[in-house]
Design brief:
This protein is 34% helix and 17% strand. β11 and β12 form a beta hairpin. The protein is built from 9 helices and 14 strands. The model has no long low-confidence stretch (mean pLDDT 96). The longest helix is centred in the N-terminal third of the chain and has 16 residues. The protein has one domain: Metallo-dependent phosphatases (Purple Acid Phosphatase, chain A, domain 2, 4-Layer Sandwich). The chain has a 7-stranded mixed sheet with strand order 1-2-8-9-10-12-11. A 5-stranded mixed sheet has the order 5-4-3-13-14. By secondary structure, the chain is an alpha/beta fold.
């Protein structure tokens, strides 16, 4: 799908405004209504087949009470011969979707988003994914590439940190580590953010979206602090598509054929076994 610089910039700017001023947003948290349904994903990493299946299968226009949660969309495997990759396209499509269904499409800030904002060197196959992303934008937009990158950065900075469901589910990209949980600043979910919140290793936003390998005990402490029954995250690769980390933490992955997404009703409560039974594999979707 062709996209000019002006079209891309407009989509990212408009979607960013929709993110910031959503009627469902307080601070850095989106609170979903008590009716309808929500589909939570894991990391997508520009897996275009799964992304397209998800969008077609969700059919948001025909299901106005269906909500879709997207995160970790960028930095995939579509590299050209010069090492440039164009996951900006999937991010742009998601921004367009937000513009069309502003109250149904929701994002979560993820670690690759923050890396792209800061230009940090996450490596994949010996290549810096941030440099490859920038090279793809420059290749596709030429001398307008810098303006497009500014619009992308500003869009990423509008992404919330959490989605709260009325049935006790709480969605975020990841959790702080066992060593960080005791002193973690939970106020980030309810207030405006400052530069220090994003600081490498010590900032609470950084700790939230970069943290790995939280124990079930840490997940339980986190859930208690945010008054949630079960936390659903992504971030950690899962060959089988998901991992049950104790009774209160479910980890999803959506970036490969065995990846999954989680559709749930907002007016029903769930325990872990029931949540797992509702998982759907992308490979099983025929659309």
């Amino acid at each position: 799908m062709d996209c000019g610089a002006d079209q891309a910039i407009e989509a990212f700017e408009t979607a960013g405004e929709e993110n910031k001023f959503s009627s469902l947003r307080h601070g850095q948290t989106i609170t979903l209504p008590p009716e309808g349904e929500v589909w939570m994903t894991g990391d997508l990493h520009d897996h275009r087949s799964n992304f397209n299946k998800l969008i077609r299968h969700a059919d948001l226009q025909a299901h106005p009470q269906r909500h879709l949660v997207l995160h970790e969309l960028i930095h995939g495997d579509h590299f050209d011969a010069n090492g440039a990759e164009d996951s900006w396209r999937t991010l742009w499509q998601a921004a367009e979707l937000k513009c069309s269904f502003s109250n149904q499409v929701h994002f979560l800030l993820a670690n690759h988003d923050l890396a792209q904002i800061h230009g940090e060197g996450i490596m994949k196959g010996g290549l810096s994914v941030c440099e490859a992303f920038n090279a793809g934008v420059k290749r596709d937009f030429g001398d307008r590439g810098d303006a497009v990158n500014v619009a992308i950065t500003e869009f990423l900075l509008t992404l919330p940190l959490a989605i709260r469901c009325p049935n006790g589910l709480f969605f975020c990209h990841s959790l702080p580590t066992d060593a960080q949980i005791e002193n973690f600043d939970f106020t980030i979910f309810d207030r405006a953010l400052a530069g220090a919140d994003y600081q490498r290793r010590v900032g609470p936003v950084y700790q939230l979206i970069w943290g790995r390998n939280a124990s079930p005990a840490t997940a339980e402490k986190f859930a208690d602090k945010v008054a949630a029954k079960i936390i659903v995250t992504g971030h950690q690769p899962q060959e089988t598509g998901f991992c049950v980390n104790g009774e209160r933490h479910l980890i999803l992955a959506s970036d490969h054929a065995q990846g999954v997404f989680l559709p749930v009703q907002l007016d029903q409560t769930y325990d872990m076994s029931t949540l797992v039974s509702r998982l759907q594999r992308f490979v099983a979707i025929d659309v």
